[in-house]
């Protein structure tokens, strides 16, 4: 019956006007899939939707089909469909978006809002209103840019995003406040994944504890901090009569009773304004090497029921669970213990062990109880503002998004070193060296005992460069050897490295470099297969913007970046590298080796008619970076200077220059390099720092 129905659809499609064929047909397929899904047949819905993509040019891509396809796949954890799910999303965004798709594209923009920065969201929202084709293209390129493993058939980050949406719909359903039909917890979960720690509980009232705090504030002997009563107490004064300087025992008892009654009144007022509210706190552990850089405070998110409305959502601070009336009620004329202040103490005390943020807030509040002039009518307001601002600042430090998939992979650091040059066609490029030590990510005992072999793994470096609209302008991959010599000290094992020539377009170009250490399942031994359960054993990733390219103006004398190295032999030789010596990217030269530099000069003038070479000179100077008083007084002390004269028939001059540094003491130095074209007076210079160190 289903095949007959599909045939009828095709026949009716052929009868439609040509201008509407693809749009109407994709609409029909989308609705057919929805009907199959509503009847409980998810795989049939997927089959129907995929016919739209498989029809190629006969069907106009429809983003609704792509998004619904990946939602069904991830909601049902159909891992065999992950490749198709990624492809269907790309296909759905690849066509000419029209008004029928505006609502779905707007919904998708809201779905990814938690994982993009506000500036991107605002700009893309503008495209949604004015240029649907552009926003569809940008969304497609965005997800391709987010693909962490360039060698696999599907986009792991895209799949993970939709898996988080599916999880959120199942677990965060206190209300439907978000675009996902969930409560606010989904906004953080979709952005950062599962927290490292959760605390779920209810804010309850502790009458005896609140009463003890009030007693402390009144400096009453029965308070938890102790202390004698005072006639100058800020909350209750036991004034003596003018004729009796010492209060009688009975009067003291009356005064004490009055204080107890007043303490009970403060406690009752706070209790009357207390609401039993559920809360949930999420903690993401941070460190100085984490995504937040050198900001090492944990990420804290508070969800709970609002003090006035009872609505469950993300809170600015714990104070949002306190009714506003508690801040307006000052506890009577002349009082400084407001119900809000007592509830703040109570709430922060209940969670002070969760994170330093809560502990610091509690101890700050508590310290005001017995400090001189510690309490005033604005204490609760001031503390609320401070706690809101502090939590907001903590959350601002969060990364735009964080992938659990990437975090679960054993990671190793990548280093990328780039130098600006011009090629033979005067096009800017970056001489790019990628290095890494994947050995660090393997099981240490296996490396130490030399159980791994070089044939057990393959290592591939990748580069993908994209512009501000996520257009891919360059993509490359290169394999590299892995050095497993069994010396036991992984740090001493040789790093793996490759060289790439990356087009240098502009500083707005984003570069993604990754490296994948993959298990060779065909050649690896059974013992290695038992240890390495994943095909991708380790993963490295680094992102950086391109530098400003060199000038291509032939009227401007230009010089490449200086590449530094030494005369160490043997050295790694790269087929495409412009350098023929051992490059030291950190510019550290052994004391018993001479300094080597590579530089290139561009746009030199030559006389093509008379075939006479163009003369120019290169001057280099080397001086200590930090000269002492006597070195500055005698300017030539510890300084090397030399001028070299050259002639060339070409507009470009390339050379490796060896500088004798055998007499240099260990320390930091500055190299100044200047090229001067005598016939025109044009000149260009570069300056770098390097270090001579003991071998």
Description:
The chain is an alpha+beta fold. The chain has four domains: 170 residues, no CATH class; 175 residues, no CATH class; 138 residues, Immunoglobulin-like; 145 residues, Sandwich (Immunoglobulin-like). The chain has 20 helices and 21 strands. Strand 7 and strand 8 form a beta hairpin. The chain is globular and about 115 Å long. The N and C termini lie far apart (81 Å). The N terminus is likely disordered. InterPro entries: GWxTD_dom.
Sketch the major β-sheet: 5 strands, antiparallel
**Count of distinct structural domains:** 4
Which descriptor suits the 3D outline? Answer: globular
Radius of gyration: 35 Å
User: pLDDT under 50 segments (min length 5)?
Assistant: 1-23, 220-243, 289-294
InterPro entries: GWxTD_dom
Protein name: GWxTD domain-containing protein
Keywords: Signal
Organism: Halalkalibaculum roseum
Summarize the structure.
Keywords: Signal. With 695 residues, the chain is an alpha+beta fold. 34% of the residues lie in helices and 23% in strands.
Tags for this entry?
695 residues; alpha+beta; Immunoglobulin-like; 5-stranded antiparallel beta sheet; 20 helices; 23% strand; globular
Record the SSE blueprint.
Elements lengths: L1 H14 L5 H18 L3 H13 L8 H13 L6 H11 L9 H10 L6 H13 L1 H14 L10 H16 L13 H8 L4 E7 L3 H11 L31 H24 L4 E8 L14 E7 L6 E4 L8 H5 L10 H12 L5 H12 L11 H18 L7 H5 L5 E9 L5 E9 L7 H5 L8 E10 L5 E9 L15 E8 L6 E10 L6 H6 L4 E10 L12 E2 L3 E4 L15 E2 L4 E3 L4 E8 L11 E11 L4 H5 L6 E9 L4 E7 L7 E10 L6 E11 L2
Parallel strand pairs: 15-21
Antiparallel strand pairs: 1-2, 2-3, 3-4, 5-6, 6-9, 7-8, 7-10, 10-11, 12-16, 13-14, 13-16, 16-19, 17-18, 17-20, 20-21
